[in-house]
Structure formats: structure tokens, C-alpha cells
Design a protein that fits this description.
Pfam families (chain B): PI3_PI4_kinase (PF00454), PI4KB-PIK1_PIK (PF21245)
Distance between the termini of chain B: 26 Å
CATH class of one domain in chain B: Mainly Alpha
Largest interface: A-B, 85 and 78 residues
Distance between the termini of chain A: 26 Å
CATH superfamily of one domain in chain B: Phosphatidylinositol 3-/4-kinase, catalytic domain
Shape of chain A: elongated
Number of strands of chain A: 3
Subcellular location (chain B): Mitochondrion outer membrane; Rough endoplasmic reticulum membrane
Membrane topology (chain B): Peripheral membrane protein
Structural class of chain B: mainly alpha
Number of strands of chain B: 10
Structural class of chain A: mainly alpha
Radius of gyration of chain B: 32 Å
Protein name (chain B): Phosphatidylinositol 4-kinase beta
Strand order of the largest sheet of chain A: 1-2
Oligomer: heterodimer
Largest sheet of chain A: 2 strands, antiparallel
Strand content of chain A: under 5%
Largest sheet of chain B: 6 strands, antiparallel
Family (chain B): Belongs to the PI3/PI4-kinase family. Type III PI4K subfamily.
CATH topology of one domain in chain B: Phosphatidylinositol 3-kinase Catalytic Subunit, Chain A, Domain 5
Strand content of chain B: 5-15%
Helix content of chain B: 40-55%
Radius of gyration of chain A: 30 Å
């Protein structure tokens, strides 16, 4: 729309402006890009400039078009423009402030666009001049801080955040953005927190603030001290943390809602397609249509909060009944759209619209439930890069959660029961939407369900090996907690066991293709050790004595898988080679499982022989198991309940670098698209002033 | 079975029943009279030994009960009982005495002075026979006052002397008032029954000398009288109420709540109504602050005896012009007030001089209120309001599950505002509420309302008004710096580190606060006894060792693991299965000790030595005034039975009335309803008890059985006396010791569900109950019957104490239990 309007504006203005066919502001820009000081002839030049409506396109293209040599000549003028922009931020006249903010936006972007290869120092020099840079940036950050914290117009605050987002994302790699060094020194962390702690400002700017924070935290994360990391890790103000959680919650909820809408939209076609038996063709097709753009920025924010701040863990469990959103006072200027320049926050009206406080259909939810639902959607399809990254990040977040004692405590809290509807991938061999009546259970059951679901559904050619590793590790961590705290979770462990055994089976059948890329023995070891946990420590966390029998039953029933695994690892470990050591570890780990198989199989066979039954029923096998425990001796294995703690560096550093890069690109794209539509903003201020 | 019992006991019951009903009509004034009349016989002789006196009294009363002949309840019309005369003239004198007593500092002296004044009244009465003339008192006054100025000590002595000299001329009433036997119960009943302003005013003053707890028990009665009875009673009580309100926030709030609740039945336009409401407003406006820290201690005696503390309340004066003039004329008539207030200023008592504030407040015109916002009561009112608000919102949700989830989330929000200077009024000690463990809260079973049970973590303190409110500890109490520490090469300098750490609140320094970060380091204490059941090897398996040096493989038997699993499962105390339709069953079944331990472990405040766990049921939409009445009756009966050494067991649970349709209830610990027991266990009551306590011959079971019988007998009597209806299994609890406890006294006396007006059986005794007692021929059943009889006799003997509680509350009350005429039988 802006294009058309721009042109119209251009035409209209021609009549009034001195020189035909050019806007006044454009003329003024031209003056700046001339070599002389524009204020020389017109002392009120800068005052006038900021009263003009900014023509971002022109300014940016002008900056881009400067040749290397010209830079030197006009540097003074650009410095001067920057300087006056910063000064104008302190103006009372809000139009000037708005224009100054937008001009700054254009400056940052234009300069970077031009000098993609240039070093950060050159850019700083060009914008502000080396000698004054520190002071200018200090002034800029202080002005932004006071604008954000003051009780000025909401749109103005929003614009400030846009400017900051723009500044943060001008480079592809955030760590190469040297200007951010000044943002580190002159922290706006407190301003961000303030926005998050207040419910009304949170509603309007929360999303931008959270994304900005997530990006800032990732600036030179591994190389230097990032004050934002330090500060974020020690925040303990509950309203603020809650606010942050709420923003994430809303964004994820919105995603889930969109997905559900699409899915329902799709449903009609789904069944007709099913009847026409298009099979696999259809599923691929459906997946494409169902994919909704994932929101990695918000997920990154959630990760940083969970990973850095222990206090944030409580927020995960913090239920969000509708009431605490309701008291948000109506916005001071109700005519203003909530976000004139939104960076595509999924839907801010959801945040603003006070939900009906007493809608009986509304299930009370909390951030963790929403996150689990979100994860279940994201994990369905890991084919494209974005979704794979999202799924990976989800699993990393879950890893952090599973390691945290407090989080575990509420995951296992018997009093906090929820129905969590996880999304399940439509698969040919099983019915979709099996149970509408999921029982209300402790949250950990939902986590385990999600893990089982993942294990079952991703045994494919393009094997997401690291996701499987994380998945199994999460299960292990949860088991360790249950063992330590002697929590007997009423969970159908059988599903987990059979899922894991199937995974082992898959690993073995695809041994050759997988082994070229991954250390499958490591994964196999983890899986076997999960079984060892159940075998040796089952007494501390299994819910019933029957479940222990069932474990043995399941192992004996699937003994072939374990036998094959043993053969394989034995073969690999006896051959000298890359995997020798890894395989021999698995051999050792299998000792108890093999003992069980070797102990019970003959017993069962002889039972069958004695009773002349060819096929034993489950009950009969269990009976045999029960009566033959006493003659079985197991070996106590070391370190079953030990696990490697998650640490971001060095293992995950590369992943996060890439992730931040893609988020930066995405945010930049959105900011640039929307910053141009400033008409609304101007309208607001023209009526005010 | 139950029929059988009725036939067995009916004879006894009926007999007594008759006597009870028979006595009722003329009962209103009888207890007071009988006291007045029976006392003198023994009183003169054994005055110093009240216990002996009681013994003397007993046969008389018991005789009355057992013979059930009316002759012993010594008739005589109330008007002739000797104290109508003293009243009219001494009106002024008593007031004067009151004014004089303002000089006195402590309660004991005050009491003595009271006696002294009464003494004078008597003397006067003797000397100046009943002329209802106002002239004589002023004439007599000067010397008296001087005497008071001299030294109250001396005057008391002289009074004693005089008293001893002419005992025969004493008024019996006065002697009663002076005697050590005169307790709150009697005071209340005289306050209620006496029509004489003088007596009422005297009792109003006497209230100050009783222990606070004793008076507190009768607070509902006092307030109901204040609201619904005539002005004289109100004026007599008011100084005391105001005084107590000044002293204590919790008393202020209790008063305010009760006033609100008991006023609600009246017409809005009624003037009396506005009296109660005015006082309530006054309290809530927080004008009744302790005047000044210095004065507070003296206030104990100073405020009460000002004749005008009612005066400082502008609300009262603004009430109606006629009333004001009326009051003034009254005081003018007695002159003494103006006189004494002048005197007070000139009095040499330094303590009075040192309390100018008090002086101010006693003269109604120069009153100054603190202009500060009423913060004293605000936090607590907000707290209660939010609890009630939650209840109201819950009621709109359709399913139990939703209610529970909503409750949990609402409470977690409430947590953000805690700790604060708020407390649970049902608790017995001073404390601040620190946290509501929201995940433990449960919604209770109710059809259309949403009562809920919350557990509340509190920190005990010296005095909740003055002790500082504990600092908030974030929910997960874990050091917030872990992540910084873990960040690899953060490149922080030592200073930076120190700088960033200093921001962290210093609760980390607390040694007691554990700093367990993650499950890797988590140490779990095994419950005691558990370790014994495991052999050495299994100990190894419990804490696996990571040492790689021990090459020696450790072997364990699979059978052991399996055995341990089943053992531990069997060892665990029986728990109820989680049922979304009945979420409270599990929570209530868990032993209290266990729950306390568990919640303490999970609480950020758990490490503090003053940490305590309380629980409370919040009810909205239910009128708890009847429950309160039942509580008082139960309390009285319990003390009666204790006094008479009848081993009946009942458990009155505390009730806090917040308004006519909301309140709080103190939950009964370790108890689940019979309904829940049956549903969960699918066993008969006897089998369930056997399951819980062991075989029929074990000590544990026998104890439980005895408890069952004693409580069953106690509650059967309660049901009979109070005509408690609606006795379904959901309203009867069974506690861990085997006691049964009746709850929900929503239908007592003349009210009943669906307005049937009657229920066929006098109390609930099912065959299952009898089975627990060993069948209708069992020893325990005989014991049960005996207990019933003893209990009934004891109750009959002290029935006045019980009756009075109920009677006073009948005033102006619209409670369903008071509908109809044949309200009270006992």
C-alpha cells in the first residue's frame, strides 16, 4: 500500500514545494549528501528536517548509493545527521521524535546495507565518528531508555523497540555488529524488564521486548561478558518473570491455535482423501499445508529464560487463568491500533482482548502445557530446516527442564493434574485422534508421552539422530529423579518399553546406513541403560509389583531384538575399528538383559512343554516369571543414575549461532516491512500536537 | 439394630426428654433465679470455697433432674427476686463509680473498686430506701469521691471491713457479682436477662476483668445483644468492645465480621440496625487504633471506664439528634459525669496526666482522628476478600476438575502477594501467612457451591501486629546465580563477579536454606524404618556407587528387587485412589504429619524454625452463623462433660463467620467422610477399621473402637439435643484414631431439609455402627448406652450454660433454626 500512497503523496506535494517533482524532505536529504554543511545556509535546517515526514526509501537508497570515496566527504554530514537525530529524541514535539527514530532506523540500515563487508569500526566511524561514538551512543541509549520507561505514547515506545530490533539485526551475525558493544555498555535491560512487568505495556510491546532480549543475550555469548546474560540470570522479580512467561505463552498459544484452525480446515478433505486411498501421497501433501511458520525467536527467548534463570522455572508452572490479563487497563489511546509497526507478533489482539474471565470451556493452562503442545506440533515434521531447528530447541528446553529439581517437583506433583492434548502425527498404521478423553495426570506423563510419540514416529531414513539422543536423555533424567525421590508414577511404562525396543530394532536394521553418520552405539547404550534402570532400580519407582513382571515379560517377549543387538555389538567390538570401544560398552551393559533372557526363556519353554501348550498366554508367562525370580542373579551396574549435565558450550554453540542468524534475518525482514507504514503513527501525533 | 437401641435407651431418653420439655417454657429466667436463691443457703457459710459450694449445689440440682419434679426448681417470679429495687436509684451511683474508677490503673484494682461501688450502692440502699429521687446521690457523692482519691486500696479495705460487718444487709445479687463464682457465663446471662440498666452497666464494666479468651467465646452473644437488644445493653457493652478493638486488630475484625453477619437479618431502616452497622463502620474505618504506644498499656483500664468512650464515636452521635439529647440528659441527671470528668483533669494521678490523648478521646468534642489511611486492617481484609472472591468464582465452574485447576492457579497468584501481615483467624497462635502451597489445595464436595480447603504455611511470631513481616523468598529458593557460575569462560573479573553477586538477595547466606540445584545433587532422606527393611546389598543398589575402582562385581538377586518393590508398596499407608470427582478424598486421607513434612520439604520457607502448617476451609454462599452456634454449644457441652468427667468425645471445630453468607471453618485433621471411606474402600465400617487398625484383639483396634464408641455416644447426644438433621454419610467423618465427627450443622433445632420439620430418629445409629461396637449385645454397646446416659445427665445438670448460648442468639435472628415456636427443647 505504501508504494501507491507514496507516489500520491509525491504528486500532491509537488504543487506546494519549491522545486517541482521532489518532496521537500528529499531535497533536504540531498543537501545532507552534498558536501557542504546543510546548516550553513539555513541555521534552522535540522529543526525543519525532523518536522518533515521521513522518506525512508529515499534515504536508505541514498546511503546505499554512496561510493567509497564520497564517504569521506559526506561523513561529517552523516555524523551531524546522526547527532541531530539523537538530540531530537529529547524533543518535546513528538513528531520530531518519531521522525528522528525513523531516520536513525534508516541510517543504521542504509549504512550496513552498503558496507556489508566493512568492519564494524568503519561503520561506527561513518555514522558517528570515532571520537564521538561513545558519547553519541550513550545519549542515544539514554534517550531510548527514558522513552521506553516514560509514560509517553505507546506507539512511540513501540517505535523505540523497532529501532532497537533494527539495530540488533542489521548484521547477519549478531556478534559482528560492533555497535552493539555500546548497547552492552549502556544497558537497556531494565527498560525491557519494566515493559514486561507491566501488564498493559506487556500486552503491546511484550513480544518485541522478549525477542530483543533474546537477541541481545546472544551477542558474543561465548567470547565475552555479556551483561544481559548476567542480568537475566539473576532476575528474581516475579511479576517481570511472569510477564516474560506470559508473552511466550501467548505467542505459543497463538501458534497452537493457528495450527488447530488449519488442521480443522483440513479435516474435511482429510477424510475424503482417506476414502480415496491416496495414502502416502496425501500425507505429505497434508503436512505441507498444515505447517505454520514456526516462531524460533520466541522459542529462543524461552530457552534463554529457562537456561539462564532458575527463577523462571516457577513461571513454567504458573497457571495463567484469564483473570490476570483482564485487569489490564484500557490503552490510553484506544483509537491507536495496538502495533502500528508490528514485527509480526502472532496476534497481539489476543493479548489485549481480555478473555472472558469465566469461560467454563477454557481449560486452565500454563506455559509448560502450551509448550508441550507446541513441541508436539513442531516435532511432527522435522523435514525442513526451520522445523528441525525448532524441534531441536524444544528438546533442549525439555532437557533443561528435566534437569531442574524444582521443575521435576511440579512435573511429578500428584496434585497438579492436567489434561494435555498432544498432537499426534497422522500415520497409516494407527488411527488419528485416538483418545479425546485423556485422563488428567501429572504433567510428567505428558512429557513422557511426547517422548514416546517422538520415538515412535521418527524412525525414518533421514534419521534425526541427535534428537533421538536428546529424547532418550530426557527420559533418563526423569527416571533418575523418580528413583531419587521414590516417586511411583502411574504411567503405562509398557508403551515406553516397546517404543524403545522398536527403536533398537530400527537401529540394527539400518546399521550400515546409520553408522556412516552417527555413533549409534552411544544411542543403543543409552537405551539399554534405560532398561537397566528399570531392572535394577525398578523397586524404587515402579507403581506396582505387576509392572516389574511386565518389564521382564516385555524383555523376554522381544528377546530376539536383544539377541541381535548383542551379536552386533559383539561383532563390532571384536573387530578393531572406530566403534570398538563404543560397542564393547554396549556389550557390558547388556549383561543383565541377557541374564534375564537366558534365565527365563528355558523356564518358559519347559513350562510350555510340561503343560503341552504351544502358545503361552501373557498371564502364563507372567506366572512363570513370578515364580522364577529367586534363581536369577543380576549384576549391579555402575552409574546408571548418573547423567551428563546439559551445557550449551561447546556442544551446542554452533547450533545456536546458526539459529540466531536465522532469527536475525527473519526479524530484520519483518521490521523492514513494517517500519515503513508510519502513517498511522503520524496521524496520531498530528492530532495530539 | 438401631431400633433395638432406641427401645433400650428410649425409656431413659424419653423420661429426660419430658423433663426437658417441661422445663423449657419457664426456663428463661430460672437459672439466674435458682442461682440467686440457692446460693444464699450455702453462700454465707462457704463463701471462700467455691468448689465446696458447687458440691453443695450439685445434689440439689441433680435431685431436680432425676426426680424430674418441678418443685425443686424453686419458683418465684423473677420480679420478686430482690433486685428491682436497687436498680433505679443506683443508676447514677454506678455511673459515678465508673467515672471514679477511671483513676484506677489495673484491672484488679478496677474490679475491687467495682465491688466497692456496689457496696456503697447497697449501703445507700439500706440507708436511703428507694426514693427514685435524683437529689440524694449528689449529696452523698463528695465524700465518696474523696475517698476514691485518697487511695482505692484503703477504700477497698474499708469496704471489705464494712462488708464483713453487716453481711446480712447485702444484696444477694451483689454478693453473687462479687464472688469468685461469677464468671463470664453468668455475666452474659445477667446481661441478657436483667432489665435493669444499672446491672447491665455494671456487668459491662465487669467484662473488663474477665480473661479475654473467656469473653471471646461469648463474642457472638455480646454482639448479637449489642445489635438486637435495647440501648442500655448496647451502651453497657460498647465500651468494652471499643476497648478491645483498640487493643487488637483481630478482635476488631472478628467484631466487624460478626456485626455484619448478625445485622443482616434486620430491616435496613431500623435504627438498631444502624447501631450495629455504625460500630462496624467505625471499626472498619480503623479509627479505633491504639491511641499512642505509651498509652496502650494503660488503655486497658483507662478506656473502659471513661463513660464517654462511646462518645468518641462521632457516628453514634450523628445518629439522631434525639438520641444525643437523650444521652446527654441522662448524664446530666447523674451529674457525676461532668463532675468526675472535671475531677479527672485535676486528679493527681500522674498516669492520667500522662495520657492526654486519652483525655482527648474521652471528651467527644475535641476528638482528633489520625488522618492516615486505614492500613491497620486493610491487608487482612484484602486477604479474606480475595479468598472469598476465589470461592465465588469457583462456584461458576461446572466440573470439579476445572474448579481444582482454577483454584490452584488463583492461589498461585495470591502467593505473589505473600508473605504479608495477614493471618488465619482460626489459628491459636500469632503468625504471619507466608505462603499458600497452592498445589495442595482441594475443592470439597458440594453440589452447587464451591467450598475449598487450603493449606497455609505460616511463620509463628510474637505478635502479628508488631513483629516484622517475613521477607519474601522466591518460590524455588535456589541460588539464582547458578547459570552465571556455569557459564564457561564468562571472562568476568573478580570484581564483576562480586558485583553481580551482590545483587542477589542474601537468603543464600542462610545456612539452613539448602542450595540443592538439580536432581543430580539431590539427596533424599528415606523415611525411617525403610532402611531396616533392606539388606546390605540393596543398600548398595539404592545408592549406586560410581567408583570405577571396585572391580569386584556386585551381584543382586532379581527376587530381592521384586520383593522390595512389593514390600514397599505394602508398607506404604493405605491411600485413597485419586478421583477427579472427589479430589478432596486423597488430600484428607493423607496423614497430617506426613503432609506437613511433605509440604515443608517443598516450601521455600520450610527451613525456618517458626514454620507451621495450618489449614482452613473457605466457604462462600453458606451461612455459617448456625455452625458457629453449634460450635458454641458443642464447646459448652464438651466442657460440661469434661467437668463431670464423662468420657464422651466430641470435636468442636472452629468457625469464623465473615458475613451472613461466607466464612471459614477449621478442618478436622486426619479425617475423611464415611461416604469417602465406603466409596474408596468398598468395605463395611468394621472391616475398614480392621484394615486400618489391625485385628479385633489388637491394642490399636481396641483403642480405635473405644474412641469410636465415645465419639459416637457424644455425637448421638449432640444430635439429639440440637436436633441435628441431614445426617448422611458425607456429613460424618471418621478420623485416624477411629473417632467419628459430625460436621455440617446446617439443619439444627427447628430447621430441617425440605422443611419436613422433623426427622424420625433422634440420632443416627446404623447397624454398621453397632457392629463396630461389637453388636447389640457387646460390652462396648453397653458402654455406649451408659455413656449416653451419663452424658445426658451431665448435660441436663448444666443446661443453663448451653441454653443461654442459644437463647441470646435467638434475638432478632432470622436463622432457619429459630423458625417456628417449638424451637428449643434442651
Amino acid at each position: 500500500m505504501s508504494q501507491v500512497e507514496k507516489k500520491a503523496g509525491l504528486l500532491r506535494r509537488t504543487s506546494s514545494s519549491k522545486k517541482p517533482l521532489k518532496e521537500k524532505v528529499v531535497l533536504m536529504y540531498d543537501e545532507i549528501f552534498a558536501k557542504e554543511d546543510p546548516a550553513k545556509n539555513n541555521p534552522r535546517f535540522w529543526d525543519e528536517l525532523f518536522l518533515m515526514k521521513v522518506n525512508l526509501e529515499y534515504l536508505e537508497s541514498k546511503l546505499e548509493s554512496i561510493d567509497g570515496e564520497d564517504v569521506q566527504c559526506i561523513q561529517d554530514n552523516i555524523n551531524s545527521l546522526f547527532h541531530h537525530c539523537v538530540q531530537a529524541l529529547g524533543e518535546e514535539h513528538q513528531i520530531k521524535v518519531v521522525n528522528a527514530l525513523q531516520t536513525l532506523c534508516a541510517l543504521f540500515r542504509g549504512v550496513h546495507q552498503k558496507n556489508k563487508s566493512a568492519s564494524g569500526f568503519d561503520i561506527i566511524n561513518m555514522l558517528m565518528g570515532f571520537d564521538k561514538a561513545e558519547q553519541r551512543m550513550k545519549d542515544l541509549m539514554e534517550s531510548l531508555d527514558s522513552l521506553l520507561c516514560g509514560d509517553g505514547s505507546e506507539s512511540l515506545k513501540s517505535l523505540c523497540l523497532k529501532l532497537l530490533l533494527c539495530l540488533v539485526t542489521v548484521t547477519d551475525n549478531i556478534s559482528q555488529n560492533t555497535i552493539l558493544e555500546y548497547v552492552m555498555i549502556n544497558s537497556i535491560f531494565e527498560a525491557i524488564l519494566q515493559i514486561l512487568s507491566d501488564s498493559s505495556s506487556r500486552g503491546q510491546h511484550g513480544y518485541d521486548a522478549v525477542v530483543l532480549l533474546a537477541l541481545l543475550v546472544n551477542y558474543r555469548k561465548y567470547e565475552s561478558v555479556n551483561p544481559y546474560i548476567v542480568k537475566l540470570s539473576i532476575v528474581d522479580d516475579e511479576p517481570t518473570l511472569d510477564g516474560m512467561g506470559m508473552v511466550v505463552h501467548q505467542a505459543l498459544t497463538e501458534y497452537n491455535r493457528q495450527y488447530k484452525d488449519k488442521e480443522e480446515e483440513h479435516q474435511g478433505g482429510f477424510f475424503s482423501a482417506l476414502t480415496s486411498m491416496v495414502g502416502s501421497m496425501f500425507i505429505a501433501d497434508a503436512d505441507e499445508k498444515l505447517s505454520v511458520q514456526t516462531n524460533e525467536a520466541i522459542l529462543l527467548a524461552l530457552y534463554e529464560a529457562v537456561h539462564l534463570n532458575r527463577n523462571f522455572i516457577t513461571v513454567l508452572a504458573q497457571s495463567h487463568p484469564e483473570i490476570d490479563i483482564v485487569p489490564a487497563p484500557p490503552t490510553p489511546t484506544p483509537t491507536t491500533p495496538t502495533t502500528p509497526l508490528g514485527t509480526t507478533p502472532p496476534s497481539l489482539d489476543v493479548i489485549n482482548n481480555p478473555e472472558l474471565p469465566l469461560d467454563p470451556n477454557l481449560q486452565t493452562s500454563n506455559l509448560l502445557i502450551t509448550f508441550l503442545k507446541y513441541a508436539s506440533i513442531v516435532m511432527q515434521d522435522t523435514k525442513d530446516e526451520h522445523r528441525l531447528n525448532s524441534a531441536r530447541l524444544c528438546l533442549i528446553i525439555l532437557t533443561c527442564i528435566a534437569e531442574d529439581q524444582y521443575a521435576d517437583a511440579f512435573l511429578h506433583d500428584d496434585n497438579m493434574n492436567f489434561r494435555v492434548t498432544l498432537h499426534r502425527m497422522p500415520m497409516r498404521h494407527r488411527k488419528k485422534a485416538v483418545g479425546k478423553n485423556i485422563p488428567s495426570r501429572p504433567l510428567v506423563c505428558a512429557v513422557l508421552d511426547l517422548m514416546v510419540e517422538f520415538v515412535v514416529t521418527h524412525m525414518m531414513k533421514d534419521f534425526p539422530f541427535d534428537l533421538y539422543l536428546r529424547c532418550v536423555q530426557i527420559i533418563h533424567k526423569l527416571l533418575c529423579y523418580q528413583k531419587k525421590c521414590r516417586i511411583r508414577l502411574h504411567y503405562t511404562w509398557r508403551e515406553l518399553w516397546s517404543a524403545l525396543i522398536n527403536l533398537l530394532k530400527f537401529l540394527m536394521s539400518n546399521e550400515t546406513s546409520l553408522l556412516s553418520k552417527h555413533n549409534i552405539f552411544h544411542l543403543a547404550l543409552l537405551i539399554v541403560n534405560l532398561f537397566n534402570m528399570f531392572i535394577t532400580y525398578g523397586d524404587t519407582f515402579l507403581p506396582t509389583s505387576n509392572s516389574y513382571d511386565e518389564l521382564y515379560y516385555e524383555i523376554v517377549r522381544m528377546h530376539q531384538v536383544f539377541d541381535n543387538l548383542y551379536c552386533m555389538v559383539l561383532r563390532v567390538s571384536t573387530n578393531a575399528g572406530q566403534w570398538k570401544e563404543a560397542a564393547s560398552k554396549v556389550t557390558h551393559a547388556l549383561v543383565n538383559i541377557r541374564a534375564i533372557i537366558n534365565h527365563f526363556n528355558p523356564k518358559i519353554e519347559s513350562y510350555a512343554a510340561v503343560n503341552h501348550i504351544s502358545q503361552l498366554s501373557e498371564e502364563q508367562v507372567l506366572e512363570v516369571v513370578r515364580s522364577n525370580y529367586d534363581t536369577l542373579t543380576l549384576k549391579l551396574q555402575d552409574g546408571l543414575d548418573q547423567f551428563e549435565r546439559y551445557s550449551e558450550q561447546p556442544k551446542e554453540a554452533a547450533f545456536f549461532k546458526e539459529l540466531v542468524r536465522s532469527i536475525s534475518l527473519n526479524v530484520r525482514k519483518n521490521v523492514s516491512l513494517n517500519t515503513l507504514s508510519q502513517d498511522v503513527l503520524l496521524k496520531e501525533f498530528s492530532t495530539i500536537s | 439394630m438401631s431400633l433395638r437401641l432406641e427401645t433400650l435407651t428410649e425409656s431413659v431418653l424419653n423420661q429426660d426428654n419430658q423433663t426437658f420439655t417441661w422445663m423449657t417454657p419457664s426456663f428463661a429466667l430460672r437459672p439466674t433465679n435458682s442461682f440467686v436463691w440457692t446460693r444464699p443457703t450455702a453462700g454465707v457459710r462457704i463463701k471462700v470455697q467455691p468448689t465446696e459450694q458447687r458440691i453443695k449445689l450439685r445434689p440439689v440440682e441433680e435431685g431436680g433432674a432425676s426426680s424430674s419434679s418441678p418443685s425443686l426448681s424453686l419458683p418465684s417470679t423473677p420480679s420478686s427476686c430482690g433486685h428491682p429495687q436497687p436498680v433505679t436509684p443506683p443508676l447514677g451511683v454506678i455511673n459515678e463509680g465508673v467515672a471514679e474508677l477511671r483513676l484506677v490503673i489495673d484491672a484488679e484494682v478496677a474490679q475491687r473498686a467495682c465491688e466497692e461501688v456496689l457496696e456503697k450502692v447497697k449501703l445507700q440502699q439500706v440507708e436511703v430506701p428507694p426514693p427514685p429521687d435524683e437529689a440524694p446521690p449528689p449529696a452523698v457523692k463528695p465524700p465518696e469521691i474523696r475517698e476514691g482519691e485518697d487511695s482505692s486500696q484503703g477504700s477497698v479495705k474499708s469496704a471489705r471491713r464494712r462488708q464483713r460487718h453487716n453481711p446480712s444487709k447485702q444484696s444477694w445479687l451483689l454478693r453473687l457479682f462479687e464472688s469468685k463464682l461469677f464468671d463470664v457465663s453468668m455475666a452474659i446471662s445477667y446481661l441478657h436477662n436483667s432489665k435493669e440498666p444499672g446491672v447491665q452497666a455494671y456487668i459491662g464494666n465487669r467484662l473488663f476483668s474477665f480473661a479475654h479468651e473467656e469473653v471471646d467465646f461469648y463474642l457472638p452473644q455480646l454482639l448479637n445483644m449489642y445489635i438486637h437488644m435495647d440501648e442500655d445493653v448496647g451502651d453497657a457493652i460498647k465500651p468494652y468492645l471499643v476497648h478491645r478493638c483498640r487493643q487488637s486488630i483481630s478482635f476488631s475484625l472478628r467484631c466487624a465480621w460478626l456485626l455484619g453477619a448478625y445485622s443482616s437479618d434486620m430491616h435496613i431502616s431500623t435504627q438498631r440496625h444502624s447501631r450495629g452497622t455504625k460500630l462496624r463502620k467505625l471499626i472498619l474505618s480503623d479509627e479505633l487504633k491504639p491511641a499512642a504506644p505509651r498509652v496502650r498499656r494503660e488503655a486497658l483500664t483507662l478506656t473502659p471506664f471513661c463513660p464517654v468512650p462511646a462518645g468518641p464515636l462521632p457516628g453514634e452521635h450523628g445518629l439522631s439528634p434525639s438520641k444525643r439529647t437523650h444521652q446527654r440528659s441522662k448524664s446530666d441527671a447523674t451529674v457525676s459525669i461532668s463532675l468526675s470528668s472535671n475531677l479527672k483533669r485535676t486528679a493527681s494521678n500522674p498516669k492520667v496526666e500522662s495520657s492526654p490523648d486519652e483525655d482527648c478521646s474521652s471528651s467527644s468534642d475535641s476528638l482528633e482522628f489520625d488522618s492516615g489511611p486505614p492500613v491497620r486492617l486493610a491487608p487482612q481484609r484484602e486477604f479474606i476478600k480475595s479468598l472469598i472472591g476465589i470461592g465465588k468464582r469457583l462456584a461458576t465452574l461446572p466440573t470439579k476438575e476445572q474448579k481444582t485447576q482454577r483454584l490452584i492457579s488463583e492461589l498461585s497468584l495470591l502467593n505473589h502477594k505473600l508473605p504479608a501481615r495477614v493471618w488465619l483467624p482460626t489459628a491459636a497462635f500469632d503468625h504471619h501467612v507466608a505462603r499458600v502451597p497452592h498445589t495442595q489445595a482441594v475443592v470439597l464436595n458440594s453440589k452447587d457451591k464451591a467450598p475449598y480447603l487450603i493449606y497455609v504455611e505460616v511463620l509463628e511470631c510474637e505478635n502479628f501486629e508488631t513483629s516484622s513481616v517475613p521477607a519474601r523468598i522466591p518460590e524455588n529458593r535456589i541460588r539464582s546465580t547458578r547459570s552465571v557460575e556455569n557459564l564457561p569462560d564468562c571472562g568476568m573479573t573478580a570484581e564483576q563477579r562480586a558485583g553481580s553477586f551482590s545483587i542477589v538477595p542474601n537468603y543464600d547466606n542462610d545456612d539452613e536454606a539448602w542450595s540443592v540445584d538439580d536432581i543430580g545433587e539431590l539427596q533424599v532422606e528415606l523415611p525411617e524404618g525403610h532402611t531396616n527393611s533392606c539388606d546390605n546389598i540393596s543398600q548398595f543398589s539404592v545408592d549406586s556407587i560410581t567408583s570405577l575402582e571396585s572391580k569386584e562385581p556386585i551381584f543382586i538377586a532379581a527376587g530381592d528387587i521384586r520383593r522390595r518393590l512389593s514390600e514397599q508398596l505394602a508398607q506404604a499407608p493405605t491411600t485413597f485412589k485419586r478421583d477427579p470427582e472427589d479430589p478432596s478424598a486423597v488430600a484428607l486421607k493423607e496423614p497430617w504429619e506426613e503432609k506437613v513434612r511433605r509440604i515443608r520439604e517443598g516450601s521455600p520457607y520450610g527451613h525456618l524454625p517458626t514454620w507451621r502448617l495450618l489449614s482452613v476451609i473457605v466457604k462462600c454462599g453458606d451461612d455459617l452463623r448456625q455452625e458457629l452456634l453449634a460450635y458454641q454449644v458443642l464447646q459448652q457441652l464438651q466442657s460440661i462433660w469434661q467437668q463431670e468427667r464423662v468420657p464422651l468425645w466430641i470435636k468442636p471445630y472452629k468457625i469464623l463467620v465473615l458475613s451472613a453468607d461466607s466464612g471459614m471453618i477449621e478442618p478436622v485433621m486426619n479425617a475423611v467422610s464415611l461416604h469417602q471411606v465406603k466409596k474408596q474402600s468398598q468395605l463395611s465400617l468394621l472391616d475398614y477399621l480392621l484394615q486400618e487398625h489391625g485385628a479385633p484383639t489388637t491394642e490399636a483396634f481396641l483403642t480405635a473402637q473405644r474412641n469410636f464408641v465415645q465419639s459416637c455416644a457424644g455425637y448421638s447426644l449432640i444430635c439429639y439435643l440440637l436436633q441435628v438433621k441431614d445426617r448422611h454419610n458425607g456429613n460424618i467423618l471418621l478420623d485416624a484414631g477411629g473417632h467419628i465427627i459430625h460436621i455440617d450443622f446446617g439443619f439444627i433445632l427447628s430447621s430441617s431439609p425440605r422443611n419436613l420439620g422433623f426427622e424420625t430418629s433422634a440420632f443416627k445409629l446404623t447397624s454398621e455402627f453397632v457392629d463396630v461396637m461389637g453388636g447389640p449385645d457387646g460390652d462396648m454397646f453397653i458402654y455406649f448406652k451408659m455413656l449416653m446416659l451419663q452424658g445426658l445427665i451431665a448435660a441436663r445438670k448444666h443446661m443453663d450454660r448451653v441454653l443461654q448460648v442459644v437463647e441470646i442468639m435467638q434475638q432478632g435472628s432470622q436463622l432457619p433454626c429459630f423458625h417456628g415456636s417449638s424451637t428449643m427443647r434442651a
